[in-house]
TrEMBL record:
DDH domain location: 15-158
Domain called DHHA1: residue spans: 220-297
A matching Pfam family: DHHA1
PANTHER family in alphabetical order: BIFUNCTIONAL OLIGORIBONUCLEASE AND PAP PHOSPHATASE NRNA (PTHR47618:SF1)
InterPro entries, sorted: DDH_dom (IPR001667), DHH_sf (IPR038763), DHHA1_dom (IPR003156), Oligoribo/pAp-PDE_c-di-AMP_PDE (IPR051319)
Phylogenetic placement of the source organism: Bacteria, Pseudomonadati, Spirochaetota, Spirochaetia, Winmispirales
Protein name, entry field: DHH family phosphoesterase
């Protein structure tokens, strides 16, 4: 797949822009950095763009320490015009979580379940735990050996996205870790992935836990405050550890609306299907069997009781 992407990129006299979903996380940044590094090896200049703030303090710190140059995407940037070329990572172009781009999207490289992408090439591998694993497979296909920084960043992303190989992990992810371990630091990667909270998160987590409601096998909470995406995810990942609970729904405010995070331990109650059921006609959402995420725009917010009732209806129907 990477060879056809490189083929499409060769001979272009412009920089290639690499962009991910908005509010980028570890996996999207690591995938972009890995891809940028590959293109460099083929003398194809590229720039990593991002859109939506990078919320994770540890990711911001990682970017600062690695001296990575990321450029904030604004639609009025004079350099980015309708004859620009893009690669989209950790997301599929055409989905609501990627900003609309003015030029040609050469490829969407993603590990989320998606129906269609508006790109010339689609490399969608929903069975992979991380998009970084796909990028790592490109390096192996091209017999490239990543440097320590790139390898460690990719390792960190695989740990974050699979929650240390506990979630949606495939043999490809395990192989990628084993490959990257030859070049990067497993210890550094796991330490970074394991330090994504900061002390100011504690009162927010406390208030979210106080809002928890249980019904049969479901746990539900709604926090009327802003939480970072990764904090919401960590709370949901913690609650799903309760033995009696196999379905977790967490909702909080987020920028221009409300963020929804779902976890499931029961393959008959797929988190992806569930989130689409509870968000129908009010928001967008999707994901995998074990985890899913969604968003409700502020002007579509029906109130927490409305969503809670939909969750109850779903659980009662089971
Ligand atoms: Mn990802």
């Amino acid at each position: 797949m990477i060879s056809s992407i490189l083929q499409k990129l060769s001979g272009k006299d412009k920089k290639i822009y690499i962009i991910s979903h908005s509010y980028p996380d570890y996996d999207s940044i690591a995938s972009a950095v890995g891809l940028c590094w590959i293109l460099q090896k083929y003398n194809i200049p590229s720039v990593i763009l991002y859109h939506g703030e990078i919320e994770s303090p540890s990711l911001v710190e990682t970017i600062r320490c690695l001296d990575l140059e990321l450029q904030y995407y604004t639609p009025d940037d004079k350099n980015i015009t309708s004859d620009s070329y893009f690669l989209v990572v950790d997301a599929a172009y055409g989905n609501s979580n990627v900003i609309s781009l003015p030029g040609t999207v050469i490829a969407s490289i993603d590990h989320h379940e998606t129906l269609s992408t508006k790109s010339l090439i689609s490399d969608i591998r929903p069975d992979y735990g991380a998009c970084s694993t796909i990028v790592c497979s490109y390096m192996q296909d091209l017999s490239l050996k990543p440097n320590e920084e790139v390898a460690t960043l990719l390792l960190t992303a695989i740990f974050v996205d699979t929650d240390f190989l506990k979630r949606k992990v495939s043999s490809h992810d395990i192989e990628a870790i084993s490959f990257l371990n030859n070049y990067g630091s497993l210890e550094k990667a796991s330490s970074t992935a394991n330090n994504s909270l900061i002390i100011p998160d504690v009162p927010l987590i406390k208030r979210a836990l106080e809002k928890l409601v249980f019904y049969k096998f479901m746990a539900f909470f709604y926090l009327d405050e802003e939480l970072r995406q990764e904090v919401l995810a960590i709370i949901a990942d913690t609650i799903i550890k309760l033995e009696e609970i196999t379905l977790v729904v967490g909702i909080c405010k987020h920028k221009e609306g409300y963020k929804v995070s779902v976890r499931s331990e029961d393959k008959n109650n797929s988190a992806g299907v569930f989130i689409q059921t509870i968000l129908r006609e009010i928001g967008v959402g999707g994901g995998h069997v074990n985890m899913a995420g969604g968003f409700i725009k502020a002007d579509m917010w029906p109130g927490e009781n409305f969503i809670f009732d939909r969750c109850l209806d779903y659980v009662r129907s089971k």
